[in-house]
Design goal:
about 30% helix, methyltransferase, seven-stranded mixed sheet, NNMT_TEMT_trans, disordered N terminus, Rossmann fold, alpha/beta, methyltransferase activity
C-alpha cells in the first residue's frame, strides 16, 4: 500500500541518515513525559485494559518482554511489568541508552507515578507491589539498530510506541520496522503499538528528525499479516493545543496479539 502525503517536497531521509546519537534525551523527556498528558492517559488506560484482559483469558507470568525504541518513555514498560521476568528496552540512540541506564539504576522518577496510577484501575496492576523496584530489577537496556535485528525473538509480550513512523521519511522503512517488531513476538503474544498520525517530522533540541506520514489504514496493512483476528486500531483525537509535531493530527493505537502462524 503506497503512502500518500502532501509533504512530497520534504527531502527523503532514511533512518541511517538521521543524527540519532545527537538526540537530546533530556529535552525530549521534558517536552513529552515530565507530566502526564491527556493523550498518553487515554493510550495508557487502553493498553492496560488490553493486557489485563488478555492475561485474564490466557494466564501467564515470568515472560520476556520487549519495548522497541524505548527512548525516554517508560510507560510501555510499566504496562508490561506485572507479567515480565525481563523487559528488553531496545534503543539506538546513545543518549537514550544512557538515560535508560540511569532510570534502571536509580528507579523511575516520581513523575512516572501518575502514569502507573492510570494502570491500577485494572488487575493485577492494582495489587502489584513496588513497581519502582520491579522496574529496576527487570529492565534490560540494549543498544542496537532495529534494521540490524532485534536482540532475540519469541518475546511473550511487546510494545513499540511512536517509533516505526518516526525514524525515516520512507514508507518502506516504516513497514520494515513494524515487521521487525511483530516478527520478534511469540505466537499468541499480546502487543500494543502506537503511532503519530500524519507526522511530518519533529524537532528535538536544535535538531530535526524524520517521520513518515501514515494513517490508520497503513498501520492495519502493516500489522495484519502478523496479527490474530480481532486486532483493533484506534484513533486518539487530540485538541490542537496539545499537538506535538508538524502535520500531526492525532495518535493511532494498535492492540492485538501475535497470530499462531509464522506471518
Amino acid at each position: 500500500m503506497p503512502v500518500s502525503t502532501e509533504a512530497d517536497s520534504v527531502r527523503t531521509e532514511r533512518n541511517s541518515e538521521a543524527p540519532w546519537d545527537s538526540f537530546d534525551s533530556l529535552a525530549y523527556f521534558e517536552h513529552n513525559y515530565r507530566t502526564l498528558r491527556s493523550d498518553d492517559r487515554q493510550i495508557l488506560a487502553r493498553v492496560g485494559a488490553h493486557f489485563s484482559a488478555h492475561f485474564a483469558e490466557f494466564p501467564a507470568k515470568q515472560l520476556h518482554g520487549i519495548d522497541v525504541g524505548a527512548g525516554t518513555n517508560l510507560y510501555p514498560a510499566l504496562a508490561m511489568l506485572p507479567w515480565c521476568e525481563t523487559i528488553t528496552l531496545f534503543e539506538r540512540s546513545a543518549g537514550n541508552v544512557e538515560w535508560l541506564g540511569r532510570a534502571k539504576a536509580e528507579g523511575f522518577g516520581a513523575n512516572w507515578q501518575p502514569f502507573w496510577d492510570v494502570l491500577t484501575v485494572n488487575e493485577p496492576y492494582d495489587l502489584f507491589p513496588d513497581p519502582r523496584a520491579a522496574f529496576s530489577r527487570v529492565a534490560d537496556v540494549r543498544q542496537g539498530d532495529l534494521f540490524g535485528g532485534l536482540p532475540g525473538s519469541g518475546y511473550g509480550i511487546g510494545t513499540m510506541f511512536f517509533v516505526a513512523e518516526s525514524l525515516s521519511t520512507e514508507y518502506g522503512e516504516f513497514q520494515d520496522a513494524v515487521s521487525a517488531f511483530a516478527g520478534s513476538l511469540a505466537p499468541g503474544a499480546p502487543f500494543a503499538a502506537a503511532f503519530m498520525e500524519n507526522s511530518l517530522g519533529y524537532e528535538v533540541g536544535d535538531l530535526r528528525f524524520p517521520a513518515c506520514r501514515i494513517e490508520a489504514e497503513h498501520v492495519t496493512h502493516s500489522l495484519e499479516p502478523f496479527a490474530a483476528e480481532g486486532m483493533k486500531v484506534e484513533r486518539i483525537d487530540i485538541p490542537a493545543e496539545l499537538l506535538l509535531r508538524d502535520g500531526y493530527t492525532g495518535m493511532l493505537l494498535a492492540l492485538g496479539r501475535r497470530s499462531d502462524g509464522t506471518g
